Amino acid sequence: MSKKLVIKVTAGADAPERCSQAFTVAAVAVASGVEVSLWLTGESAWFALPGRAAEFELPHSAPLPDLLEALLAAGTVTLCTQCAARRGIEAADTLPGVRIAGAQVFVSEIMADGVQALVY
User: Fold this and answer.
1) How many folded domains does the chain comprise?
2) Is 56 helix (H, G, I), strand (E, B) or coil?
3) Using an 8 Å Cβ cutoff, are 119 and 25 in contact?
4) Sorting pLDDT into bands at 50, 70 and 90, what band is 3?
5) Left, alpha or beta for 60 (phi > 0: left; psi -120 to 50: alpha)?
6) What CATH number did the domain enclosing 40 receive?
7) Largest CA-CA distance found in the chain, in angstroms, rounded
8) Which InterPro entries does the record cross-reference, listed alphabetically (predicted)?
9) Which of 49, 55, 68, 86 is most buried when burial is the number of CB atoms within 10 A of its CB?
10) Mean pLDDT for the stretch of residues 45-71
């Protein structure tokens, strides 16, 4: 049985500690060889856009652009369909490697065997 971790992050600059925790856990899991799927929802949706992670600051935390780069290189990063639409974000606007998908795909991922899910 393979192990997969699905993380849904709802926080962005509005709740920086919660946001940073989600990205840090996801990046550490990827570095540990775990298959990771990170879902950007709510205010974290903005991080699907080029340059937005670089605007995020939280003292004593890893730089968000570095964490996001690691996740894009070795994991899956998904932008919520409805969250993107509410913010006027289209697929052509996002960073390379970010996919846009909805609740059906999220539910499918978290219901698979061997999956652990976290929401931040």
Assistant:
1) 1
2) coil
3) no
4) confident
5) left
6) 3.40.1260.10
7) 39
8) DsrEFH-like (IPR027396), Sulphur_relay_DsrE/F-like (IPR003787)
9) 68
10) 98
